[in-house]
Write a structure and sequence with these properties.
Blueprint (H helix, E strand, L loop, with lengths): L13 H36 L6 H31 L9 H5 L25 H53 L1
Amino acid sequence: MQLQVEERWAIGDDMYNKYKQETSLRQYRIALDELEHLVVMRLFELSKLSLSGTGYKLRQQIGKALRRRSEAIRKALSRYNVQAAALTPPRLSLSWKDITEYTFLGEFDLLRQSRADICELDWAKPAHREATVKYFKLHHAHEEIERLNIEVWRLCTSIHDEEAKTTPLSTSFSSLILC
């Protein structure tokens, strides 16, 4: 059975370039998935390391796993950077410093480059995300101030009530001592 190929692709043809670009995008996504997987595992291990109930032996094992994972992350990072540079337009390359600065899953913004090209959307830009985080912190601070204003009045009332209860007792004790 023959495939009945009428015309072969030549280097530089439109179809050749299209599938070459798709292949490089697939290789980039594979490298990205591997890097994300390793970094997310590292983040979870770091969170386990800081738990209060973690014993000495478990901390030692997690520390060894983190050292092994660091080497795997370095290799995955270099593969990612090669694939990111091969794309048109090239994606941003990452450094080891960028990876080690991730301490929370919310800071891990490689996830935004995963499947769809959403890099240009406003919410995907680091400055906008930072501003959003600050906005919500400010909003919650206002809520906390309202809550504290209520608590201050409760505390004042409690102090006043306690003083009202203890004043008669202290006068009765002082009269007993004088006798």
